[in-house]
Amino acid sequence: MTLTLRALLGATVSLTLAGATMAETTITVATVNNGDMIRMQGLMDDFYAKNPDIKVEWVTLEENVLRQRVTTDIATKGGQFDVLTIGTYEVPIWGKQGWLVSLNDLPAEYDVDDLLPAIRGGLTVDGELFAAPFYGESSMVMYRKDLMEAAGLTMPDAPTWDEIKTAAAAMTDKSAEQYGICLRGKAGWGENMAFLTAMSNSYGARWFDENWKPQFDSEAWKATLTDYLALMNDYGPPGAANNGFNENLSLFQQGKCGMWIDATVAASFVTNPTDSSVADKVGFALAPDTGKGKRGNWLWAWSLGIPAGTQKVDAAKAFVAWATSKEYLEVVAAKEGWANVPPGTRASLYANPEYQKVPFAQMTLDSINSANPNEPTVDPVPYVGVQFVAIPEFQGLGTAVGQQFSAALAGTMTAEAALAAAQTLVTTEMTRSGYIK
User: Fold this and answer.
1) How much is the pLDDT for 437?
2) Which one-letter DSSP state was computed for residue 239?
3) Helix/strand/coil (H/E/C) assignment for every residue in 58-74
């Protein structure tokens, strides 16, 4: 064999091996089974065209299961995932613990300064961005304009809980499977407790006083839970204790809910005529209040973070930068229309004249901007977070309390018993953890 031929063959082998190595860069992404994430999986051709050396495997899970899996994996350094779908609760805690890779070195064209301050702030620790927001949300009232009109009522842009009760009663016809209101009942710190904690803020309730003493024995929490149970028992669908975001979305799209108070991100799905039978009949309003100066809306971002233990940081960053970029929004808009782009993350989206035509765009932005995680409720608190308490113990505490409240909704215990159980179990854990001296 000549030297030249040997060199050529060697080069060919080297190129083949290099190509094989590049093709084998596979990252595993853990995500939630919400509509925007499912849509992204159908748009991966754009990512592959720009990153032919990276392949993505998906692990798509129900919200409570996702949280459990990714928390266990990152805490034990299990290494199952290269990209995690996590939220505004986890990011600051995990960032401080060194569990996440900093994203401060994303390319200039990513334009991190375009991220909405309220959303970016919740994902930043000491100036370090530890996750990139895929979509941001608050919560608001989605309602059937036709049913309100038939009842002779008008939904204010900023309703009170009393106005919500009146509307729920007027729109309920259980014989026709038409329920005045649908709310989360499924137990979980990010399911029923996200809703109930945000609702409680508007009633003047709080999880803890300034000395970390639990407050579930307060009149404000009693009023919150009593009104919630009355709304759901009198005007809600059967089996509501099993309903989370996706279950209520399906009910609303089927025309079975007069109102639904939930994540602003749902607006694109309830107004999409492909999936929603009431797409042209939906109106929007701010989350309700009781006149105490706080509304029952939350603040959240489903975001993409990279666990510190991954061996594929560069590939993971390439995916995160693509999935949360301005360009990705344009990809979705071209395929699905501007109403269906992931909302709530970028100022440029809300400055876009095409997006400004979307009927829920301004209400979503107003809801996000009105949430204040540093002053979530009427009285002072020692914690940050609107629908959660930003301490590591909250994940377990929120789910445990959620189980009590879900049981009350299912009718297996009274509101008083659920609140008493919540007070006892939270006090016990906070004492054990050293918050209460």
Assistant:
1) 85
2) T
3) EEEECHHHHHHHHHHHH
The DSSP bridge partners found for residue 57 are 28
| Cα-to-chain-centroid distance, residue 187 | 15
Q: Encode pLDDT of 373-419 as tens digits.
A: 999 999 999 999 999 999 999 999 999 999 999 999 999 999 999 99
CATH number of 138-298+382-432: 3.40.190.10
How far apart are alpha carbons 200 and 77 in whole angstroms?
A: 36
Alpha-carbon Rg for the chain in angstroms: 23
Q: How far apart are CA 240 and CA 237, in angstroms?
A: 6
3-137+300-356 classified as CATH 3.40.50.11270: no
Where are the CATH 3.40.190.10 domain residues in the chain? 3-137+300-356, 138-298+382-432
CB 311 within 8 A of CB 321: no
Count the Cβ atoms, other than its own, within 10 Å of residue 352.
Answer: 19
Q: Which residue has the tokens 């038939």?
A: 150
* 433 phi and psi angles, rounded to 5 deg: -85, -5
Whole-angstrom Cα distance, residue 420 to residue 412? 14
Q: Which residues lie across from 257 on neighbouring strands?
A: 179
Residues in Cβ contact with 125 at an 8 Å cutoff, skipping those fewer than 6 apart = 91, 92, 95, 96
